[in-house]
Amino acid sequence: MPTRPLSPHLSVYKLSRYTLASSIFNRFTGMGLSAGLLLLVYWLMAVAGGARTQARAMRLLAQPLMKLVYAGLIVAFCYHLVAGIRHLIWDTGRGLERAQSRRSAWLVGVVSLVLMLVLAYCAGRAAAGPP
Amino acid sequence: MSLRSPLRRVLGLGSAKEGVQHWWVQRLTSVALVPLSIWFVVSLLALPSLDHATVIAWMSQSWTALLLIVFVLVATWHSQLGVRVVVEDYVHGAGAKTLTLVIVSFTHVLIGAAGVFAVLKVACAAAP
Description:
The complex is a heterodimer of chains A (131) and B (128).
Chain A: H1 18-48, H2 51-61, H3 66-91, H4 98-128
Helix pairs in contact in A: 1-2, 1-3, 3-4
Chain B: H1 6-11, H2 21-46, H3 52-59, H4 62-90, H5 94-126
């Protein structure tokens, strides 16, 4: 291995910093969404396979344990979306001061949490079927 | 401690002019995914049910099919770039890293192709 510093420099930061936690969680949720992409394409292929194939896939996708997966995907989607927008704002050179960055870390947490609750509520209503 | 890699010192070359390529495409796809992913989630939630007839009717609308294909392609591209960086950061050893990157690339091509194929199949079958 080269002796020059290579990322990730996990050991040089204080892990208690939530600015760091917000960055790691962005990566973590991104990986989760990649797995979600697999699920999406599986569903699309099942739909393309015809009514019977889709019905078989839906039985698998409607397993009670899958609710946990969907909850995870909602958390991942909302967080990654909001944290990603924070990254895009950073890319314009704005909000990089320490105080601003700490404030936006909190903001990302709060906004994504609200979004998660709204999405979970809507998904719950949609799953319950039309009134 | 020098920040230059040994290869850089040996070759004595400047930058390869492609240093920002990965970064730039990652941003480009994120910007596109903001409206695309919101559109996808909202339209999926707006469907009255997820049974076959409903989903087929939805997917065979031209705009839905088009946006679904773009969404799957851009999301797959974005995912590939993201997973690649994670592998480069956390999988150590040249052999294991290369092998993992090959698997990641192949899987993403398969995901993207399967998504496009599925939407096209449904949309074309329903075309008059």
